[in-house]
Amino acid sequence: MKSVTSRDNPFYKELKHLAGSSQALRKAGRSLLDGVHLCQAYLDLVGQPVHCIVSEGALANPEVAAIVDRVTAPATSLPDALFGALSQVEHGIHLLFLVETPRPVRPDALVQSAVLLDGVQDPGNAGSILRSAGAAGIRQVYCSPGTASCWSPKVLRAAMGAHFVLEIFENVDLADLIRTAQVPVLATSGYASERIYDVDLSRPAAWLLGHEGQGVSDALLNLATHRVVIPHAGAVESLNVAACAAVCFFEQLRQQTTKLQRA
Amino acid sequence: MKSVTSRDNPFYKELKHLAGSSQALRKAGRSLLDGVHLCQAYLDLVGQPVHCIVSEGALANPEVAAIVDRVTAPATSLPDALFGALSQVEHGIHLLFLVETPRPVRPDALVQSAVLLDGVQDPGNAGSILRSAGAAGIRQVYCSPGTASCWSPKVLRAAMGAHFVLEIFENVDLADLIRTAQVPVLATSGYASERIYDVDLSRPAAWLLGHEGQGVSDALLNLATHRVVIPHAGAVESLNVAACAAVCFFEQLRQQTTKLQRA
User: Fold this and answer.
1) Which listed residue, of A253, B123, B236, B260, carries a Cα 20 to 30 Å from A155's Cα?
2) Domain spans of chain B, in order of start
3) Band (B258; pLDDT cuts 50, 70, 90)
4) Cβ of B236 and A124 within 8 Å?
5) Does the CB of B92 have a partner CB in chain A at under 8 Å?
6) Where does the signal sequence lie (chains A, B) (predicted)?
7) Shortest CB distance from B230 goes to which of A231, A232, A250?
8) A28 — contact with chain B (CB < 8 Å)?
9) Sign of the C-alpha dihedral, residues A66, A70, A71, A72?
10) Hey, is the C-beta of B35 within 8 angstroms of any chain A C-beta?
11) Average pLDDT of each block of 10 consecutive residues along chain A (263 residues)?
């Protein structure tokens, strides 16, 4: 492992630039994974990072040491003070992977279960949705241009490694995707009358989820195959979009599993 | 409506003190509701605030004006610059209700469906859980001492008014509550083997949800009637606690509704 101790080191300066600018990271086609859980998930599910960066203090942590041991890619240690400027996580463990942002090849059409995000803005919500999708066995996520940037540190952190089991497509024209879809597209809406429990979810279907305040845009609602609602009880009218997503994805998985058990 | 324009006005100084200190609010037995949605929900579901505070600029907003029109309690307008120091919401609409924090009388025992929060720390998660509970028809929430403060601005904002249809009990000894419970207590755990779909949820049951990282504490897990899991598919091992809560609450509502339809 290399050791860098000067703020003027060119590699450190480049890292600091990338860590401080999501635009610079995007331009470089790279992402930063922060902390033990994300780095471990990356090693388990994807492979080696471009570079492993660790603070001198963190090397004493057995979990960090175990991860660094598995890294065959270039690795650099930094004094804690230099590392601090790279991480957005307060009181975090000082471990970063610089990785190539996956750029999966987009299929010609939507032919499997997927999640379509139409302007979901809160990074915590977007990350929670990716995490639920990954846990429910959904493999593809398509995001409209107005959706939170999926490879930003906050979305990565909230998704807890789900990124590495998903194919994520950003800046997608969702209208075009829905028009050519070969699976039903179910738009969730508090104003819909069809209950999710009355739709056959045992076959592949795509979920269309909208902006926290405004919901799915009218243009896309009109293109969807179904407009569905999670039936409520009581005076609270709506769910958080990530909570709504979890209920939908796991109802789909429940129906799929029940059908398999019956077959 | 009174108009206050001086930073030295005693009422303004008291408000600023309360807005800046959750401890001062707690001591006063009051909460601050920020924004149109929360204030409207409070008027609809509870009644009049102790005091309504609005910025001069916000009075031009028709939604704000409609709410202010419904207020018979004392109301005060402030110049925008003075109001800014009271609100934590960036780019928010300048409307605040100062309200008495509800102090519902705690029942002798747990006899209905409820949510038990054991150290849920993130205010966004706590708020989302309250919102889902309110939407699923659950009426009671019991929080351990280590759980996020439910009447803090972030939890209030995330719950979108669910507070006003719930009875919320904070600083509860959950072990004691579970020992004397007259309904089954279901602890969610990624390590459990009993699937939520295999438990009879058509009758009242309480959900025990744990800390974001560590889950439900072992002591409480051992007291619970059931340890249940949401079956997953794929390599992502766990759900966000608020997503998990939503799946559980709505599975309960689904089973209750299905049973009613069959009866």
Assistant:
1) A253
2) 2-100, 114-262
3) confident
4) no
5) no
6) none
7) A250
8) no
9) positive
10) no
11) 94 94 92 95 96 95 96 96 84 90 95 98 97 97 96 94 97 97 96 93 97 94 96 86 98 89 66
Largest CA distance in chain A: 65
Checking if the pLDDT of B234 tops 90, the result is no
**Fold: same for A2-100 and A114-262:** no
* Opening angle at CA A46, ends A105 and A156, nearest 5: 85
Task: Look up the CATH number of domain B114-262.
Answer: 3.40.1280.10
How many C-alpha atoms does A58 have within 13 Å on its Cβ side?
A: 27
pLDDT given for residue A262 in this prediction: 67
The whole-number average pLDDT for the span B199-206 is 96
DSSP 8-state code for residue A215: B
Nearest CA of chain B to the CA of A232: how many Å? 5
- The CATH number given to B2-100 is 3.30.1330.30
pLDDT at B92 over 80: no
- Chain B residues inside the 8 Å CB shell of A243: 128, 131-132, 242-243, 245-246
Burial category of B233 from C-beta neighbours within 10 Å (exposed 0-12, middle 13-18, buried 19 and up):
middle
- Considering only CB atoms, A236 lies closest to which of B131, B197, B236, namely B131
HEC readout, chain B: CEECCCCCCHHHHHHHHHHHCHHHHHHHCEEEEECHHHHHHHHHHCCCCCEEEEECHHHHCHHHHHHHHHCCCCEEEECHHHHHCCCCCCCCCCEEEEEECCCCCCCCCCCCCEEEEECCCCHHHHHHHHHHHHHECCCEEEECCCCCCCCCHHHHHHHCCHHHHCEEECCCCHHHHHHCCCCCEEEECCCCCEEHHHCCCCCCCEEEEEECCCECCHHHHHHCCEEEECCCECCCCCCCHHHHHHHHHHHHHHHHHHHHHHC
Pairwise CA distance, residues A7 & A260, whole Å? 58
Interface probe with B: pick from A247, A251, A254, A257, most Cβ of B within 10 Å: A247
Burial environment of residue B188 by CB neighbours within 10 A (0 to 12, 13 to 18, 19 or more) = buried
Interface A–B counts its CB contacts (< 8 A) at 119
Residues in chain A with CB shorter than 8 Å from the CB of B243 are 128, 131-132, 242-243, 245-246
Contact B155, B143 (CB under 8 A): no
**Which two structure tokens, joined as six digits, stand for B39?**
């204030």
Question: Which residues, 6+ apart, have CB-to-CB distance to B75 below 8 Å?
Answer: B1, B2, B51, B52, B53, B54, B68
Is ipTM > 0.90 here? yes
Return all residues near B142 (Cβ < 8 A) that are at least 6 apart: B110, B114, B115, B116, B117, B169, B172, B174, B177
CB-based contacts of B50, cutoff 8 Å, min separation 6: B30, B73, B74, B97, B98, B99, B100
A201 φ/ψ angles, rounded to the nearest 5 degrees: -105, 10
